[in-house]
Fold these 4 entries.
Entry 1:
Amino acid sequence: MIQYSINELESLTGIKAHTIRIWEKRYGLLKPERTDTNIRHYSNDELRKLINVTTLYNGGMKISHIVNLSENELNEKITELINTSQSEQTAVYEPYIGNLITASLTFDEVSFEKNFSNAILRYGLANTYQFILLPVLQRIGILWNTEKINPGQEHFISNLVLQKIYSAIDGLQPSANSEEKWLLFLPQHEFHEIGLLIANYLLRNAGKKVIYLGSRVPYDALVQTAQFNKPTHLMLVIVRNQPADELQEYLDKLSIEFKDLKIIITGNTALLSQVKIKKPMILISSFEEFVKEI
């Protein structure tokens, strides 16, 4: 059985560990088990409950009211929050985020499909990716990094998300007259493709021409493709942890080889902060920055 520390619960829900402890002591909200050294650890059920409570709490409901709700009442209140008309408030995205995280961790494809489809109908594809899917991936990424997701869960989550993005891209017509031509790729040892696919969708949706090479592209193949297609932009996403000096060497090589192109790089912010980004390379640190760039 997967177990979570209180710090992992904080990262997944945004509720401070200190606040979680207060809610436990004052309201008996969660009932964690403890190790021989008195360290709390939480089950999937406890995580699911805290996600639901957090959803209502962020939606403006008082914790003293939430803790008195039954499980059915919790679900009803979350449904009411989803149906609220206050679509500009970030809190209304939280029910979808929480439900998608829970569905992902429990292999519940039906729930994932229902919540994702409803979000798209309500907010549109671009907003769903920005305000719902990306937070889900960021929070679940915490579990990937701490190895609290087993390989089966990782493949399940990744493939569900990939299916949705591929479907969205298939619904767009390729641009025939864009002056910008973007060549999207992942370096040879990179295989986490979700971020690059989201960029692919956003660029195509903005009317840009895209040449999508996908993951694990050998350097020589990248050069040959660029020579043939003459892109105006290159874009790559760095996710895999690697020595900073190796990444620096690769980025320097790109900067020299493609000095006449605009090169967009994003991804692992902790790793990218350790390297020097040289012209013509531009570091994109957020979704909003990328939207402005295109």
Note: DSSP finds 14 helices and seven strands in the chain.
Entry 2:
Amino acid sequence: MSLATVSLLLSTIVFASFNVEAKSIDVSKNDLIYGADNRHEVDDYFDREFIDKAKSVAMRVPTNRLYNDPEDQRIINFPRVRLNQLIPQLCKEERFIDQLSVGNCSGFLVAPNKLVTAGHCIMNQSDCDSNRWVFDFKEGTTSFKRNNVYSCKRIIKQKYIYTNREVSDYAIIELDRNVEGRTPLAYRKGGMVPKEAPLLVIGHPLGLPMKITDGGKVASMNDVEQEHKIRSWFLRRNYFTANLDTYGGNSGSPVFNQKSGQVEGILIQGADDFTYNSDNECFESKHFSDSHLNSYEKVMRINKVEGLD
């Protein structure tokens, strides 16, 4: 079986299992590991500041995967499917394959009742209506507290544009009620993040329990190495590239400046992250060295998102 055929098969399985836009969770066309794998469980992270910020990050879960607990109305249950059951083609050495996988995109609070995510995660009102946003899905979670589950009331602003002249990929949604006990994240409102600035992302790779991923840096304010210079002049207005260890499901995650603690952008796109191991007949994470030449993750600049206060 060719790599292309196996890649297509894996994508189809994931697409069918999650019932979402393939771009959000297609493990054959997302991101990858640069150098060391810098994903950490939230509660194990060394910096309390970012553990607190993680409280304001949510995961998108299709409504049809959630159901009421018959014995406790305060609880919402979900199918307890582990990643290695959902995607049996992954190599057994892959990290986190024994963890539960539930969602397919990430998002974060910018106001008590407003959440920002990638535009391809919420394309229209149907997406708004057919998904929920869940906070506090961390390792060890086997059910959700009802008060941590929110509906999308309406789309305030949405763009999903990838052309030779523009990249815009974001959505601002209004939740069905204010989110209590969580602080909206501070974000850059002007200027550019400096090149080489240290980056950190918080989200739900492959629908897994939330991970804090550090070790990234701003590589460029556009894809000037990969794209035509004139074309990149237009593109650089809206995004920068970085070497973040992210996967499908991280779409919509907040990308922080690790020094300032403010959100610099939204994780929107990346390169292929899995490669087929023909000896073991399974998929394994692709590893690249930490280099500005190997920085394929696109981050939508938060101050280019229209509709934020």
Note: Helices lie at 3-18, 22-25, 48-53, 83-86, 125-129, 229-235.
Entry 3:
Amino acid sequence: MEVLDGDGLPIYTWAPRLEAGALAQARHCSSLSVAYHHVAVMADGHQGYGVPIGAVLALDDAVAPYAVGNDIGCGVAAVPTTVGRAALLAVDPRADRSARDTVMRSIQGSVPAGAAAHRDPGRHDDVEHLLESAFEALDDAAAASKLRLTRSAASDAGGRDLTRSAFFDRGRAQAGTLGSGNHFIELLADPEERVWIMLHSGSRGIGSLVCANFHRMARAACLQAGVALADPGLAFLPVGAGDDRWARVGHAYERALGAALRYAERNRQRMLEVVAAILERRFPRSVRWDEAINIHHNDATRERHFGREVWVHRKGAVKAAAGDPTIIPGSMGTGSYLGRGLGNPDSFASCSHGAGRSLSRGQARRQLSLRDELGRVAAAGGKVFTAYEEGVLDEMPSAYKDLDAVMAAQADLVEPVQRLTPLATYKGADPPRRGAGRTRRR
């Protein structure tokens, strides 16, 4: 861990050679009047919006929507099975394909990814309850702030009105869906050759709507209070004992945040159940639900650190209290680590949420060769399943930092328990719209 000077509080960083953009954002975080003790940046830290990805920020009686992130509750779930690697990869001569390929094709047909959602999702009590809680909090915040709710992800007040029916329609359709970007469903093998199911996803459009609307309110609150922000992404809301309108908005965000976190967890669980059912068609009663893990890496919780109760925001960081299970994904070509938290107070008991990007998406699309990257995945034992391979070029192994180097950099934060190696990865990607440029190959 290295201690750097901030623009207010110090910065504790586990990221070797933290990139200039992320360092500037960390310094901006350190200048916040409500920031407490120090700003921590995990080993996978890189530039985000307002707050670095991989940052842990403790705020005193305040919450900052973009310090949690746009995809509230984004996280990873994993469950082991009794299926052996050899059995999964064995070719069925009747189908002329391996069980892996059969299972993954079924997953592709059953779990919507990219921009796709469920066409006829129906109503499920668990999801309905969470959507009701989130929208009620949004509605209360709009009334208190006197700002309208919109469907826009932009920081201004443009866009169509966000109605209850539109919010519920999106939440119902996207429950149990993967999304795109760095989200994935994978089959991996542990050192005993046991197959694991792992997936990465979050709260989809629900978290985005909660974040965008409360961020607009947070900016208005800071403007009215005369708070100078080094970056608009640092706008925050008070959550102390006061009863003014912005405190009411802050407490409404607490409620909406809690509902979005539970929605994200349920989203992952629903996909796990679908994938498990597909796997068990071929390998009955093989999923070990008693060993399942389902954790967030975009959240905020009230915790005690350095003698004070504070709101600890983890944006692309995992809570790693002593003994806590952790999941640290690498890439399609490197696999992932299951770990155990060490509870280091200097990181606010946190660790990295993955390997972290070494290339931006634009850089990856310009610099990487799809053929070479797919070859790296195959050499590691994996295979990519997606509707559009060029669309996931920016998610290939060379776009990410070395996972083992990241684990070594945070050896005082998390203890490695098992290394999982990739067997198959399902990624969401959508073909470019007509007239849009195609991915450049090199």
Note: The chain has a mean pLDDT of 93.
Entry 4:
Amino acid sequence: MLAQDRLSIAAASDLQPVMSRVVSQFEKETGDKVNLSFGSSGNFFAQIQNGAPYDLFFSADAFYPQKLESAGLTQPDSYREYATGKIVLWVPKDSKIDVSKGLNVLADAEVKKIAIADPQHAPYGRAAEAALKKAGIWEQVSPKIVLGENISQTAQFVQSHSAEAGILALSLVLSPAMQDQGRYFEIPRTLYPALRQAAVILKSAQHKEVAQRFMEFLRKPEIVSLFRQYGFEVSDGSDR
């Protein structure tokens, strides 16, 4: 099957563990084929504005899909908030950092580098920055910050010990690749704006019918359960 015959999905990096499983299930049940690309929401937003040939865009926040909708670049009425994400403080299993103390532990002298996603184009990075500011430690920890291009690269920084700790997506931490590799502290939701994640079908989509089928597929109870398994909150089906 040629690449142009496949549904093309641009998805935020926090979705990598769950979306790979969703797509596999979708292909099995429908026979449709999917090309799945992961990256930062902001970079995809810029690419789509410049005509990148995606059919569907799954953002890690509502902001970018809403901007595309306002610019007339989406299929009418295709906007959907599909999940709410969460952030955690994560350290490798062999770390001596006590994550149960919460974000304040990051101000300790033994923590030299803290990985977060780049707030310029990664919603999870913006959430991390907001949480550190709300916790009152941003001034102390900002010199220690190292930026990942997206939340997956941020996780790699901590896994490879390039940083002692990271503020990551709960979905990645619960993935098979990471769930036994470290310890985490769930950052209170009061410390950062809700990570309301949204998707749109693009006006330029070559496979609008398949894209619509995929959006409907996400409503299936077993798919909702899969998102919840990876730490996402899933709404009751109201789109806005």
Note: The longest strand covers residues 195-201.
